[in-house]
Amino acid sequence: MGISVLHVIYSFRQGGMENMISQMAWRLSQSGFNVTVCALAGADDFKKRLPPGTPVLELHKRRGLDLRCAMRLRALIRELQPDVIHSHNWNSLVYSLLALGLRRTPLLHGEHALLYGWERSPWRLWLRRLFYARCDIIHTVSHGQVSDMAALGLTRHLNLRVILNGVDTLKFSPLDKAQCRRTLGLPADTPCIGMAARYVPEKRHYLLLKAFEKIASTFPNVRLVLAGAGGNCEAETHALVASHPFADRIIQLGHRDDMTTVYNALDLFVLTSTSEGMSNATLEAMSCGVPVLMNATCGSEELIHPGKNGSLAAMISAKDVAAAVSTLLAQPEQLRTMGGGARTFIEHEYPLAKTAAEYAAVYAALAGKQLTAMEGR
């Protein structure tokens, strides 16, 4: 008998968390799992990354607390009768609990990023403790998240698991750099740094763009590649690029379906985020043999072994970012060595099959059903 899983997510659009849901759906469908995705605020063409025939149900949530949306989710749960509900981040948890009421469908809740800003206010933390208590299992995607949650008093009396994100090391693998650059229209013999992320505040594109003023002055031929689309800072970031003193050396690729090509075109992947659980873009870049410079924040210490597969820096200011990038660009041979180390590290520690097996085991335990063996999948 199959195990049915209902993912509840705020929206199903381009993003690392959404991509992981898609990859898990492909993997788990081979082992008797039936996946349905409920997107509270809707979905876009990114849903095509799910296995063919995977239902994506859009509830078109209105702004603010939409009780009618919660009632639609309740009706959906009654109709589907899933074995497990898997909610993702705060909004989905709230609506899942409202929809469930007293219904005892097993609830797995995932936190995919470090809590920041007003999420750490006393009243919000109190609500989290209250809501977490209703969940059967809480999972994070990094050990750093657990430490941060424990410091905030959120882990007491919880069934808490860490399920590390994984990466498809066959899809994201080293390719010929020169060919990848030709594909993207990039110069073959100049240093290229890049970032791949939605345009949201916590990614801090503005900080990297400000740092690039200094970097471009120091390295006359360097290029900055930005991949990604969407987010409430997209228009603002495009404006910053347009007015940048080195705008002619900034390449905006937008949404790409060939991210393996993008990563392989880079000499260094830079992530200036303030809040990460376990960055999927970082995992993918490292799997392609690209060293990563990360802000020293949650999850980074689990991925980066300085000098071996990348580098960490306290990215408080643009000056910090510029100094860290410049130091690495001045050592091209060291960058290549760290790139090889990054690939080896990911192959050993973060294979996608391991992540899929861990999710499968949790779903099966919650559903009280026998798990189909996944070894070798």
Write the layout of secondary structure elements.
Elements: E1 3-9, H1 16-29, E2 33-39, E3 56-58, H2 67-80, E4 84-88, H3 89-100, E5 107-111, H4 122-132, E6 137-140, H5 143-151, E7 160-162, H6 177-184, E8 192-196, H7 205-218, E9 223-227, H8 234-242, E10 250-254, H9 259-264, E11 268-271, H10 280-287, E12 292-295, H11 300-303, E13 310-313, H12 318-329, H13 332-349, H14 352-367
Parallel strand pairs: 1-2, 1-4, 2-3, 4-5, 5-6, 6-7, 8-9, 8-11, 9-10, 11-12, 12-13
Helix pairs in contact: 1-14, 2-3, 7-12
Jot down its keywords.
377 residues, Rossmann fold, six-stranded parallel sheet, 41% helix, globular
CATH architecture of the largest domain: 3-Layer(aba) Sandwich
Instruction: Output the number of helix runs.
Output: 14
User: Ranges with pLDDT <50 over ≥5 residues?
Assistant: none
| Mean model confidence by pLDDT | 93
Question: At the fourth CATH level, what is the homologous superfamily of the largest domain?
Answer: Glycogen Phosphorylase B
Reported by name, the CATH topology of the largest domain is: Rossmann fold
Strands of the largest sheet, in order across it?
3-2-1-4-5-6-7
The CA-CA distance between the termini, in Å, is 19 Å
The total of beta strands comes to 13
The helix-strand sequence is: EHEEHEHEHEHEHEHEHEHEHEHEHHH
**Helix share, percent:** 40-55%
What structural class do helix, strand and pairing data support? alpha/beta
The CATH class name of the largest domain reads: Alpha Beta
Major sheet size, sense and barrel closure: 7 strands, parallel
